[in-house]
């Protein structure tokens, strides 16, 4: 099956005070149409920087030093800046964590939703408003006909996120990057947004890169899981394989930290310590200083790849040995 997005050995470095340090190292994964890949890990592990690299929107001081970002067969890193900009919106849509910050407070929502489409097409005002109405109806904004001229501050958080999703899908992209799209929402609104994204995915055969720290959402809404720690992959596999046979101690710790509402009582296990700074990355496993299963080899040598293309982990002392 063709891939919408293929990341090959992606490396991102940051510069500060004349020094460089690795931020993302050796990230590789594929995403197919109609599939959802969840990228999970603690804050600071590199999830959002990976998304920014795919979008060509890395912050000042960061740059891609190696690897390929292949979108529909094209290496985006080899494209001129103008052509990469054209990919955003047309081939890639993005929904971010804070919709109030993502939307323009000085423009009515109908103008924002249709703005990217107007860059490609000469639309009359009437046609543009009609197209915006259709897009907002698709994301289930209630009473939308009477709210086209409202501004973002006049909407609730959940409704603002629906507007942001309509904006991201305005040009029918093949890939949607959803970067913590429900973190600031209550649980009921969160479920509504994610169920709506699932419906839109089925209608458009949309590939979704879902960035989150919440593994409980991953279990319900994703097809595959990509676990990151300190800028590297530690484990990857299908949702069913990974949750049934966790291999890496970090993934195991993340699962142990999820509260459960049913079953017998158990103590939530936190992960002691903090992730390392990029300036202090070592040759060995970066989780070694926090790992309860650490052995001598962990700090001395890079962890080996275990498993196969359907479920892999990088660990010297895993919870479960994966079949090669």
Account of the protein in words:
This protein has 324 residues and is of the alpha/beta class. The protein has a domain at 5-229: P-loop containing nucleotide triphosphate hydrolases (Rossmann fold, 3-Layer(aba) Sandwich). The protein is built from 11 helices and 12 strands. The protein has helices at 47-55, 81-90, 99-102, 109-120, 125-138, 157-168, 187-204, 215-221, 239-244, 249-256, 296-300, and strands at 5-16, 19-31, 36-40, 62-71, 74-75, 92-95, 175-179, 207-212, 224-229, 232-238, 305-308, 311-314. It has an 8-stranded mixed beta sheet with strand order 6-7-8-3-9-10-12-11, with helices on both faces. A 4-stranded antiparallel beta sheet has the order 2-1-4-5, with helices on one face.
Layout: helices, strands, pairs:
Blueprint lengths: L4 E12 L2 E13 L4 E5 L6 H9 L6 E10 L2 E2 L5 H10 L1 E4 L3 H4 L6 H12 L4 H14 L18 H12 L6 E5 L7 H18 L2 E6 L2 H7 L2 E6 L2 E7 H6 L4 H8 L39 H5 L4 E4 L2 E4 L10
Parallel strand pairs: 3-8, 3-9, 6-7, 7-8
Antiparallel strand pairs: 1-2, 1-4, 4-5, 9-10, 10-12, 11-12
Helix pairs in contact: 4-5, 4-6, 5-6, 6-7
């Amino acid at each position: 099956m063709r891939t919408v997005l293929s990341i090959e050995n992606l490396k991102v470095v940051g510069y500060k005070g004349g020094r460089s340090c690795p931020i993302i190292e050796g990230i590789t994964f594929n995403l197919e149409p109609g599939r959802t890949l969840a990228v999970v890990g603690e804050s600071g592990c590199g999830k959002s920087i990976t998304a920014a690299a795919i979008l060509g929107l890395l912050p000042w001081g960061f740059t891609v030093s190696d690897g390929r970002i292949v979108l529909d067969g094209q290496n985006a890193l080899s494209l001129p800046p103008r052509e990469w900009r054209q990919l955003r919106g047309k081939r890639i849509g993005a929904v971010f964590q804070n919709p109030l910050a993502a939307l323009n407070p000085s423009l009515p929502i109908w103008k924002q939703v249709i703005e990217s489409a107007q860059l490609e097409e000469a639309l009359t005002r009437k046609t543009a408003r009609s197209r915006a109405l259709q897009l907002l109806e698709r994301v289930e904004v209630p009473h939308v006909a009477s709210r086209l001229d409202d501004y973002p501050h006049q909407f609730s958080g959940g409704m603002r996120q629906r507007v942001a999703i309509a904006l991201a899908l305005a040009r029918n992209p093949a890939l949607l990057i959803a970067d913590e799209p429900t973190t600031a929402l209550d649980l009921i609104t969160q479920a509504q947004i994610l169920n709506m994204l699932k419906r839109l995915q089925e209608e458009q055969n949309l590939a979704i890169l879902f960035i989150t720290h919440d593994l409980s959402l991953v279990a319900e809404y994703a097809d595959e899981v990509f676990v990151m720690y300190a800028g590297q992959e530690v484990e990857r596999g299908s949702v069913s394989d990974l949750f049934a046979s966790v291999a890496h101690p970090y993934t195991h710790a993340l699962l142990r930290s999820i509260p459960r509402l049913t079953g017998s009582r158990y103590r939530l296990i936190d992960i002691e310590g903090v992730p390392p700074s990029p300036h202090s990355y070592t040759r060995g496993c970066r989780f070694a200083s926090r790992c309860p299963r650490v052995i001598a080899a962990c700090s001395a040598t890079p962890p080996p790849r275990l498993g196969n293309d359907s479920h892999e982990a990088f660990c010297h002392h895993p919870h479960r040995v994966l079949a090669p």
